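hey can u check if this looks right to u? its 383 residues, i copy pasted from the old doc so theres a chance i mangled smth
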Amino acid sequence: MKQTASIISTYTADVSGVCSVLYELGGMTVIHDASGCNSTYNTHDEPRWYDMDSLVFISALSEMEAVMGDDEKLVSDIAEAARETQPRFIAVAGTPIPMLVGTDFAAIAALCEERTGLPCFGFATNGTHSYVSGASMAFDAFASRFVREGEKSETPAVNLLGATPLDFSVNGSVESMKKFLTDGGFAVCSCWAMGSTLEEIENTAQATVNLVVSASGLAAAKTLQERFGTPYVVGVPVGGRFSETLLQALRQAERTGESGVAYAGGADVSSAETVLIGEAVQSASLAAAIEAETGKRARVLCPVEAPDELLRHGDVRATDEDELVPLLKNAKTVIADPLYQPICPKNASFIPLPHEAFSGRIYRRDIPDITKSTKFILGEMKK
Protein backbone atom coordinates (compact mmCIF):
# COMPACT_ATOMS: atom_id res chain seq x y z
CA MET A 1 0.00 0.00 0.00
CA LYS A 2 1.19 3.47 -0.82
CA GLN A 3 1.47 6.23 1.77
CA THR A 4 1.76 3.80 4.65
CA ALA A 5 4.56 3.39 7.16
CA SER A 6 4.83 0.00 8.82
CA ILE A 7 8.34 0.53 10.21
CA ILE A 8 9.42 4.17 10.10
CA SER A 9 7.74 7.22 11.61
CA THR A 10 5.88 10.00 9.79
CA TYR A 11 6.74 13.66 9.41
CA THR A 12 5.10 16.53 11.23
CA ALA A 13 1.87 17.51 9.47
CA ASP A 14 1.09 20.72 7.60
CA VAL A 15 -1.04 22.22 10.37
CA SER A 16 1.92 22.09 12.77
CA GLY A 17 4.02 23.79 10.10
CA VAL A 18 1.64 26.76 10.19
CA CYS A 19 1.74 26.89 13.99
CA SER A 20 5.53 26.69 14.06
CA VAL A 21 5.99 29.61 11.66
CA LEU A 22 3.60 31.88 13.54
CA TYR A 23 4.55 30.90 17.09
CA GLU A 24 6.74 33.89 17.97
CA LEU A 25 4.95 36.64 16.03
CA GLY A 26 2.26 37.72 18.48
CA GLY A 27 -0.76 36.34 16.69
CA MET A 28 -3.46 33.85 17.61
CA THR A 29 -3.47 30.51 15.79
CA VAL A 30 -6.59 28.36 15.89
CA ILE A 31 -6.39 24.70 14.92
CA HIS A 32 -9.84 23.76 13.63
CA ASP A 33 -10.35 20.27 14.98
CA ALA A 34 -12.31 18.28 17.52
CA SER A 35 -9.31 17.67 19.74
CA GLY A 36 -5.92 16.03 19.62
CA CYS A 37 -4.10 18.05 16.96
CA ASN A 38 -3.10 20.72 19.46
CA SER A 39 -1.68 18.18 21.91
CA THR A 40 0.23 16.48 19.08
CA TYR A 41 1.65 19.88 18.13
CA ASN A 42 2.66 21.08 21.58
CA THR A 43 3.88 17.68 22.81
CA HIS A 44 5.89 16.47 19.82
CA ASP A 45 6.40 19.34 17.36
CA GLU A 46 7.02 22.46 19.44
CA PRO A 47 10.17 22.61 21.60
CA ARG A 48 9.40 26.22 22.58
CA TRP A 49 6.10 25.30 24.26
CA TYR A 50 7.30 25.33 27.88
CA ASP A 51 9.68 28.28 27.58
CA MET A 52 7.79 30.81 25.44
CA ASP A 53 4.13 31.84 25.50
CA SER A 54 2.06 31.77 22.34
CA LEU A 55 -1.65 31.83 21.58
CA VAL A 56 -2.34 28.43 20.01
CA PHE A 57 -5.91 27.20 20.46
CA ILE A 58 -8.14 24.34 19.35
CA SER A 59 -11.64 25.06 18.05
CA ALA A 60 -13.11 21.95 19.79
CA LEU A 61 -15.19 21.08 16.74
CA SER A 62 -18.11 18.84 17.76
CA GLU A 63 -19.67 16.09 15.66
CA MET A 64 -22.89 18.06 15.23
CA GLU A 65 -21.01 21.21 14.21
CA ALA A 66 -19.07 19.21 11.64
CA VAL A 67 -22.20 17.58 10.23
CA MET A 68 -24.30 20.76 10.16
CA GLY A 69 -21.49 23.11 9.14
CA ASP A 70 -21.93 25.57 12.01
CA ASP A 71 -19.18 28.02 11.05
CA GLU A 72 -20.86 30.83 12.98
CA LYS A 73 -19.89 29.24 16.28
CA LEU A 74 -16.27 29.06 15.16
CA VAL A 75 -16.22 32.70 14.06
CA SER A 76 -17.93 33.86 17.27
CA ASP A 77 -15.54 31.89 19.47
CA ILE A 78 -12.53 33.31 17.61
CA ALA A 79 -13.86 36.86 17.91
CA GLU A 80 -14.47 36.44 21.65
CA ALA A 81 -10.99 34.98 22.21
CA ALA A 82 -9.46 37.84 20.23
CA ARG A 83 -11.22 40.42 22.41
CA GLU A 84 -9.77 38.76 25.51
CA THR A 85 -6.21 38.16 24.26
CA GLN A 86 -5.62 41.09 21.86
CA PRO A 87 -3.46 39.28 19.25
CA ARG A 88 -1.68 41.07 16.39
CA PHE A 89 -3.36 38.81 13.81
CA ILE A 90 -5.44 35.63 13.60
CA ALA A 91 -4.73 32.42 11.69
CA VAL A 92 -7.09 29.47 11.29
CA ALA A 93 -5.60 26.18 10.12
CA GLY A 94 -7.39 23.00 9.08
CA THR A 95 -7.16 19.31 9.94
CA PRO A 96 -8.68 16.15 8.38
CA ILE A 97 -12.26 16.66 9.62
CA PRO A 98 -12.69 20.18 8.14
CA MET A 99 -11.24 18.80 4.89
CA LEU A 100 -13.87 16.05 4.80
CA VAL A 101 -16.75 18.50 5.30
CA GLY A 102 -15.36 21.06 2.84
CA THR A 103 -14.65 23.95 5.22
CA ASP A 104 -13.96 27.22 3.37
CA PHE A 105 -11.04 28.69 5.31
CA ALA A 106 -10.73 31.77 3.12
CA ALA A 107 -14.35 32.64 3.89
CA ILE A 108 -13.89 32.00 7.61
CA ALA A 109 -10.82 34.27 7.64
CA ALA A 110 -12.80 36.99 5.87
CA LEU A 111 -15.61 36.75 8.41
CA CYS A 112 -13.16 36.82 11.32
CA GLU A 113 -11.41 39.86 9.89
CA GLU A 114 -14.72 41.69 9.45
CA ARG A 115 -15.76 40.78 12.99
CA THR A 116 -12.47 41.61 14.75
CA GLY A 117 -10.81 44.23 12.54
CA LEU A 118 -7.55 42.22 12.73
CA PRO A 119 -5.60 40.74 9.82
CA CYS A 120 -6.85 37.16 9.46
CA PHE A 121 -5.51 34.21 7.50
CA GLY A 122 -7.19 30.94 6.58
CA PHE A 123 -4.93 27.99 5.78
CA ALA A 124 -6.54 24.97 4.13
CA THR A 125 -4.15 22.50 5.73
CA ASN A 126 -5.59 19.02 6.15
CA GLY A 127 -3.07 16.84 7.97
CA THR A 128 -2.23 14.76 4.90
CA HIS A 129 0.79 16.84 3.83
CA SER A 130 4.05 17.46 5.65
CA TYR A 131 5.05 20.47 7.71
CA VAL A 132 6.86 21.94 4.67
CA SER A 133 3.52 22.54 2.93
CA GLY A 134 1.92 24.34 5.89
CA ALA A 135 5.01 26.35 6.78
CA SER A 136 5.35 27.45 3.16
CA MET A 137 1.74 28.68 3.15
CA ALA A 138 2.29 30.70 6.32
CA PHE A 139 5.59 32.25 5.23
CA ASP A 140 4.16 33.19 1.84
CA ALA A 141 1.04 34.72 3.40
CA PHE A 142 3.24 36.99 5.52
CA ALA A 143 5.41 37.92 2.54
CA SER A 144 2.28 38.87 0.60
CA ARG A 145 0.55 40.87 3.29
CA PHE A 146 2.74 42.01 6.18
CA VAL A 147 5.97 43.18 4.57
CA ARG A 148 5.83 46.88 3.78
CA GLU A 149 7.70 49.03 1.30
CA GLY A 150 11.00 50.39 2.51
CA GLU A 151 14.32 51.79 1.39
CA LYS A 152 16.98 49.21 0.65
CA SER A 153 19.92 49.12 3.02
CA GLU A 154 23.00 50.92 1.69
CA THR A 155 25.19 48.16 3.09
CA PRO A 156 24.84 44.37 2.63
CA ALA A 157 21.81 43.11 4.55
CA VAL A 158 20.03 39.77 4.52
CA ASN A 159 16.90 38.01 5.77
CA LEU A 160 16.91 34.35 6.80
CA LEU A 161 13.83 32.67 5.31
CA GLY A 162 12.50 29.28 6.36
CA ALA A 163 13.86 28.88 9.89
CA THR A 164 11.61 26.89 12.22
CA PRO A 165 12.42 24.45 15.06
CA LEU A 166 11.00 21.66 12.91
CA ASP A 167 14.15 21.83 10.76
CA PHE A 168 16.66 23.50 13.10
CA SER A 169 15.39 22.68 16.61
CA VAL A 170 16.34 25.12 19.42
CA ASN A 171 20.00 24.18 19.72
CA GLY A 172 21.68 27.38 18.56
CA SER A 173 21.57 26.63 14.82
CA VAL A 174 19.73 29.85 13.98
CA GLU A 175 22.15 31.93 16.06
CA SER A 176 25.08 30.23 14.32
CA MET A 177 23.66 31.03 10.89
CA LYS A 178 23.21 34.65 11.92
CA LYS A 179 26.80 34.81 13.14
CA PHE A 180 28.01 33.27 9.90
CA LEU A 181 26.24 36.03 7.98
CA THR A 182 27.45 38.89 10.18
CA ASP A 183 31.00 37.54 10.08
CA GLY A 184 30.64 37.52 6.30
CA GLY A 185 29.76 41.22 6.22
CA PHE A 186 25.94 41.05 6.15
CA ALA A 187 23.62 42.68 8.63
CA VAL A 188 20.71 40.37 9.50
CA CYS A 189 17.44 42.27 9.11
CA SER A 190 15.12 39.47 10.20
CA CYS A 191 14.83 35.74 10.66
CA TRP A 192 11.64 34.09 9.43
CA ALA A 193 10.58 33.13 12.00
CA MET A 194 12.78 32.52 15.02
CA GLY A 195 14.17 35.30 17.15
CA SER A 196 12.57 38.15 15.20
CA THR A 197 9.68 40.40 16.08
CA LEU A 198 6.73 41.10 13.81
CA GLU A 199 8.10 44.62 13.31
CA GLU A 200 11.41 43.25 12.04
CA ILE A 201 9.60 40.98 9.61
CA GLU A 202 7.49 43.92 8.42
CA ASN A 203 10.78 45.66 7.50
CA THR A 204 12.07 42.71 5.49
CA ALA A 205 12.13 44.76 2.26
CA GLN A 206 15.16 46.69 3.55
CA ALA A 207 17.41 43.68 2.91
CA THR A 208 19.56 43.53 -0.21
CA VAL A 209 19.37 39.72 -0.50
CA ASN A 210 17.50 36.82 1.11
CA LEU A 211 18.92 33.48 2.26
CA VAL A 212 16.49 30.56 1.97
CA VAL A 213 17.50 27.89 4.50
CA SER A 214 14.65 25.42 3.97
CA ALA A 215 12.14 24.49 1.30
CA SER A 216 9.39 26.16 3.32
CA GLY A 217 10.97 29.57 2.74
CA LEU A 218 11.14 29.40 -1.06
CA ALA A 219 7.62 30.61 -1.88
CA ALA A 220 8.07 33.64 0.39
CA ALA A 221 11.44 34.40 -1.24
CA LYS A 222 9.82 34.41 -4.67
CA THR A 223 7.00 36.66 -3.46
CA LEU A 224 9.50 39.09 -1.92
CA GLN A 225 11.49 39.14 -5.16
CA GLU A 226 8.33 39.85 -7.12
CA ARG A 227 7.18 42.60 -4.75
CA PHE A 228 10.50 44.27 -3.92
CA GLY A 229 13.06 42.91 -6.38
CA THR A 230 15.09 41.23 -3.64
CA PRO A 231 17.11 38.29 -5.00
CA TYR A 232 17.53 35.13 -2.99
CA VAL A 233 20.06 32.34 -2.55
CA VAL A 234 19.17 28.84 -1.37
CA GLY A 235 21.48 26.97 1.00
CA VAL A 236 22.51 26.33 4.59
CA PRO A 237 26.03 27.22 5.81
CA VAL A 238 27.57 23.80 6.43
CA GLY A 239 31.30 23.03 6.50
CA GLY A 240 34.03 25.55 5.73
CA ARG A 241 34.28 25.20 1.95
CA PHE A 242 30.57 25.08 1.12
CA SER A 243 29.87 27.93 3.56
CA GLU A 244 32.35 30.07 1.62
CA THR A 245 30.62 29.09 -1.63
CA LEU A 246 27.31 30.15 -0.10
CA LEU A 247 28.74 33.49 1.00
CA GLN A 248 30.06 34.14 -2.50
CA ALA A 249 26.64 33.26 -3.95
CA LEU A 250 24.99 35.81 -1.65
CA ARG A 251 27.41 38.52 -2.74
CA GLN A 252 26.89 37.67 -6.39
CA ALA A 253 23.09 37.69 -6.06
CA GLU A 254 23.25 41.05 -4.31
CA ARG A 255 25.44 42.42 -7.08
CA THR A 256 23.55 41.00 -10.08
CA GLY A 257 19.99 40.76 -8.74
CA GLU A 258 19.80 37.15 -9.93
CA SER A 259 18.60 34.40 -7.59
CA GLY A 260 20.08 30.94 -7.39
CA VAL A 261 20.68 27.70 -5.51
CA ALA A 262 24.18 27.62 -4.02
CA TYR A 263 24.56 23.84 -4.27
CA ALA A 264 23.12 23.52 -7.79
CA GLY A 265 25.06 22.04 -10.68
CA GLY A 266 27.68 19.35 -10.60
CA ALA A 267 27.58 15.76 -11.74
CA ASP A 268 24.69 13.30 -11.55
CA VAL A 269 24.62 11.80 -8.04
CA SER A 270 22.30 8.89 -8.85
CA SER A 271 25.03 6.31 -8.33
CA ALA A 272 26.48 7.83 -5.16
CA GLU A 273 27.13 5.28 -2.44
CA THR A 274 26.35 7.81 0.30
CA VAL A 275 22.69 8.66 0.84
CA LEU A 276 21.14 11.44 2.92
CA ILE A 277 17.47 11.33 3.91
CA GLY A 278 15.85 14.60 4.91
CA GLU A 279 14.56 18.05 4.01
CA ALA A 280 15.84 19.16 0.61
CA VAL A 281 17.83 22.34 1.35
CA GLN A 282 19.58 21.20 4.51
CA SER A 283 20.34 17.74 3.07
CA ALA A 284 21.62 19.02 -0.28
CA SER A 285 23.77 21.63 1.47
CA LEU A 286 25.27 18.91 3.64
CA ALA A 287 25.82 16.74 0.56
CA ALA A 288 27.64 19.64 -1.12
CA ALA A 289 29.77 20.11 2.01
CA ILE A 290 30.64 16.41 2.09
CA GLU A 291 31.77 16.51 -1.54
CA ALA A 292 33.74 19.73 -1.00
CA GLU A 293 35.52 18.36 2.08
CA THR A 294 36.00 14.68 1.16
CA GLY A 295 35.50 14.37 -2.60
CA LYS A 296 32.72 11.83 -2.04
CA ARG A 297 29.37 12.39 -3.72
CA ALA A 298 26.15 12.00 -1.75
CA ARG A 299 22.60 11.54 -3.00
CA VAL A 300 19.58 13.12 -1.30
CA LEU A 301 16.33 11.22 -0.80
CA CYS A 302 13.78 13.86 0.14
CA PRO A 303 10.70 12.47 1.95
CA VAL A 304 8.85 15.81 2.13
CA GLU A 305 7.69 18.42 -0.38
CA ALA A 306 10.40 20.09 -2.45
CA PRO A 307 10.23 21.93 -5.80
CA ASP A 308 12.43 20.49 -8.54
CA GLU A 309 14.77 23.49 -8.40
CA LEU A 310 15.85 22.51 -4.87
CA LEU A 311 17.03 19.06 -5.92
CA ARG A 312 20.24 18.31 -7.80
CA HIS A 313 20.53 15.97 -10.76
CA GLY A 314 20.06 12.51 -9.27
CA ASP A 315 18.38 13.55 -6.03
CA VAL A 316 14.93 12.02 -5.56
CA ARG A 317 11.66 12.79 -3.78
CA ALA A 318 10.63 9.58 -2.04
CA THR A 319 7.72 10.07 0.31
CA ASP A 320 6.74 6.46 0.96
CA GLU A 321 8.47 3.70 2.86
CA ASP A 322 8.03 1.44 -0.18
CA GLU A 323 9.82 4.00 -2.34
CA LEU A 324 12.71 4.53 0.07
CA VAL A 325 13.70 0.91 0.64
CA PRO A 326 14.72 0.14 -2.99
CA LEU A 327 16.61 3.43 -3.24
CA LEU A 328 18.67 2.50 -0.17
CA LYS A 329 19.57 -0.97 -1.44
CA ASN A 330 23.05 -0.11 -2.74
CA ALA A 331 23.96 2.52 -0.16
CA LYS A 332 27.27 2.05 1.63
CA THR A 333 26.68 4.98 4.00
CA VAL A 334 23.35 6.43 5.14
CA ILE A 335 22.98 9.76 6.96
CA ALA A 336 19.49 10.13 8.42
CA ASP A 337 17.34 10.39 11.50
CA PRO A 338 17.89 7.32 13.74
CA LEU A 339 14.30 6.18 13.14
CA TYR A 340 15.28 5.39 9.54
CA GLN A 341 17.90 2.84 10.56
CA PRO A 342 15.54 -0.20 10.55
CA ILE A 343 14.92 0.16 6.78
CA CYS A 344 18.58 0.71 5.88
CA PRO A 345 20.81 -2.09 4.55
CA LYS A 346 22.35 -4.07 7.41
CA ASN A 347 25.84 -3.76 5.94
CA ALA A 348 25.64 0.02 5.43
CA SER A 349 27.39 2.43 7.75
CA PHE A 350 24.72 4.53 9.49
CA ILE A 351 25.45 8.09 10.66
CA PRO A 352 22.61 9.48 12.82
CA LEU A 353 21.34 12.99 12.07
CA PRO A 354 18.16 13.49 14.13
CA HIS A 355 15.42 15.69 12.66
CA GLU A 356 12.88 17.36 14.96
CA ALA A 357 10.12 17.09 12.36
CA PHE A 358 10.56 13.31 12.12
CA SER A 359 11.49 11.91 15.51
CA GLY A 360 10.20 14.80 17.62
CA ARG A 361 11.70 15.07 21.08
CA ILE A 362 13.15 11.54 21.18
CA TYR A 363 16.61 12.56 19.95
CA ARG A 364 16.33 16.31 20.53
CA ARG A 365 19.47 16.44 22.66
CA ASP A 366 21.44 14.85 19.82
CA ILE A 367 20.38 17.26 17.07
CA PRO A 368 23.55 19.11 16.00
CA ASP A 369 23.96 22.80 15.34
CA ILE A 370 24.27 22.19 11.61
CA THR A 371 26.46 25.24 11.00
CA LYS A 372 28.94 24.63 13.84
CA SER A 373 28.85 20.91 14.56
CA THR A 374 29.19 18.93 11.34
CA LYS A 375 32.77 17.86 12.11
CA PHE A 376 31.52 14.47 13.28
CA ILE A 377 29.68 13.77 10.03
CA LEU A 378 32.50 15.07 7.83
CA GLY A 379 35.02 13.14 9.92
CA GLU A 380 33.09 9.91 9.47
CA MET A 381 32.91 10.53 5.72
CA LYS A 382 36.69 11.01 5.48
CA LYS A 383 37.36 7.53 6.85
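The first strand starts at residue 28 and ends at 31.
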